[in-house]
Design brief:
By secondary structure, the chain is mainly alpha-helical. 51% of the residues lie in helices and 12% in strands. Helix 4 packs antiparallel against helix 6.
Length: 172
């Protein structure tokens, strides 16, 4: 999620929708955890009159990242951001305790080592692994709901970009 839309200033969604096209103030994406596998969510802050243009662009960027993958440079930037966030997340006892509790609930045998395992997992991930996960879990054709303001947009009337309309959105 970080390369795609984890951070407005460094993600592909943010660079294209905010920086290149000027359609939003901010945009980010993530998988929201829960009881099920997790819902993929894109959140965007934009003027209402920009939404009609911004939503199809977001769809196109999601299609492209699943079809073309991420670059090594994008992965390196995401790793740096994740390591920085990890350090801040573990900067106090409450955060460490929550992290260890989460690790314990996820079945980690030695929760006190979870921060170490997290750093190793971040550093030892390569672009081909990330791309395989993106293709497995992110299906742009399965996105099912768009909410704009308080309104839920009827997707049967919304024109999704076609599978053959993948224009060029620069990767890294």
């Amino acid at each position: 999620g970080i390369v795609l839309g984890g951070d407005t200033l460094s993600s592909r969604l943010g660079r294209h929708i905010r920086d290149d096209l000027g359609l939003s103030y901010g945009v980010y994406s993530m998988f929201e955890g829960g009881v099920s596998d997790g819902t993929f969510v894109v959140r965007m802050q934009a003027k209402m009159d920009h939404m009609a243009d911004a939503i199809p662009v977001a769809w196109t960027v999601i299609q492209q990242i699943t079809a073309q993958g991420i670059s090594d440079d994008e992965l390196k930037a995401a790793q740096q951001q994740m390591l920085s966030n990890h350090i801040l997340d573990n900067s106090n006892g409450a955060s460490l305790g929550l992290g260890m509790h989460t690790a314990m609930m996820c079945g980690v045998q030695e929760p006190s080592l979870a921060p170490y395992y997290t750093v190793n997992a971040i550093l030892n991930t390569n672009a081909s692994q990330v791309n395989a996960i993106l293709r497995k879990y992110l299906n742009p054709w399965g996105l099912s709901r768009v909410t704009v303001g308080a309104d839920i947009v009827d997707l049967s009337k919304w024109k999704k970009p076609s599978r053959n309309s993948l224009g060029d959105v620069a990767g890294g």
